[in-house]
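Deliverable D5.2: sample structural annotation.
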Amino acid sequence: MATTNKNQHTLCRFISHRSAELSKPEGQNNRFLFYAYFANDIFFNAVEQRDENQTKWKAMKTVRPQLNLFEPYKTLNDIKSKFGELLEVAENISRNKKSYTQNILQDKIESLVALDTPMEHLLWDSLFYQIVNSNSFYVKEAIIQLLLLNNILKKFGQQSRNIVPDNYSDYVDLMNAVLVLPIELFEEDKQRNRVVIGEPAE
């Protein structure tokens, strides 16, 4: 008899993705989380300054942690100790978003504050570092969950947490958003495909 494996973790996979460009434009910024470009980005600098015959991937693999410049999150314990309640809520939304009501979501996020820009930047850089070096699936998962939750908190700040029926669909889109990696880093050719991480595997 066949058995069903109900994995409790959100499995992620890399796919070549065109939906962000071809789908209807309405609500696209809620349904996809795109990379926000930062000044002095260490991975973008590595790609832009790479040798002519060097791939982007190999250029990014040369990026190493540097004291006072780039110290990525490497372990799940590091992330748990740093983000505490924020990570707990992010994981809960990832596991239970299909059953969330307006009241449940509002109760979960009403006391939370969005991350500042340097912290958000470090999460993105830590994600790139984990992807390129294949260090830990669980760390990548936690970082993605944090970035998706932070996106919700940024779109609906503390002054706008009184969720009403008219905008709850926006929250649903944000809870189900797909995180999109920047093509400037992860596409070797010039096609406008995007590499996506965070789509649940079937």
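Annotation notes: DSSP finds eleven helices and four strands in the chain. The chain has a mean pLDDT of 79.
The annotation will be released with the project's public dataset once the embargo ends.
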